[in-house]
Amino acid sequence: MQNGKNILVIGGAGFIGSHTTLALKEAGFNVVIYDNFSTGHRDACFGHEVVTGELADQAKLTQVLKTHDIDCVVHFAALIEAGQSVIDPFAFYENNVAATLFLLQAMRTADVAKIVFSSTAAVYGNQDMDLLSEGLPNEPVNPYGHSKLMVETMLQTAAAPYGLTSIALRYFNASGADPEGRTGERHDPETHLIPLLIQAALGQRDHFKIFGTDYDTPDGTCIRDYIHVSDLAQGHVAAVNRALGQSQPGFEGMNLGTGTGHSVREVVDTVKRVSGSDFRVELCPRRAGDPAKLVADACRAKELLDWEATRSDLETIVKDAWRFFSGRSAG
Predict the structure, then answer these.
(1) Which one is catalytic: 124, 144, 171, 226?
(2) Rounded distance, CA 188 to CA 12, Å?
(3) pLDDT higher for 189 or 259?
(4) Model pTM score
(5) Is 215 an annotated catalytic residue?
(6) In this structure, are strands 262-263 and 173-175 parallel, antiparallel, or unpaired?
(7) C-alpha angle with apex 121: 298 to 114, nearest 5 degrees?
(8) Which helix (H) or strand (E) holds 255?
């Protein structure tokens, strides 16, 4: 445990960033949040200090890193909508790649050499495997996945010349909400499965669409690895501790997932059961580029971080998300 160390959380007002900030504080770190609030929420900031700024503002980042004597950066800030990346790829390369280069240059100027990077399972692309392991080739199928892989490449190639220690955490399907209801998932527009289902259960949508019922899976719908955001947050704490404890520079990429998949129909049924709402479900054709199954091999994270998901059973994920969303709706 690296208690008392100073951590800069870029994008700390977002879904995963806010949960990770809570976990870092509970682990004894001093946390500074840096966010432009384009998608984040000011009421989801739990750091000791909040700085409003752009990822591309290298001078401001350098100043923040020096002023707060930062020991490690945790970098979440990114455009994340894969479908939108196909429509406007340059926006993703500008925000996710070019702006991250400004961050890395600011870190170099400020002599900060530790970073934990928010990556994605999208770097693997469409692999026909039961479990996706880090040894598979990286074959992204959209600009979003390419943008994350480009950053991983920058991190990897920066180790030897600049002495950078970096860990890229490749998420699967982040979901759920803080068990105490302090923060949760609030995207606008919302594109993630469980919040869309809960909106239908709350009557905020008149139906939910299942895209594809003819996949080669037991019930014909896509299977995904859903991981509770609080488990993800603990994975970041473990990665920060590992990065801070490394005496030699280097790059490590690893999955954060559960190793268990659930189909879309399973998630629909769980939300209906938890909410007590029998909302309408519309069956639609497949969307282009949706793989039948994406499930993590999470062995490397267990081995290197001594981490594994403990709150990611589907029932708990949905109950925590339902409590957060229904509480906000009632309020």
Answers:
(1) 144
(2) 17
(3) 259
(4) 0.94
(5) no
(6) unpaired
(7) 80
(8) strand 250-256
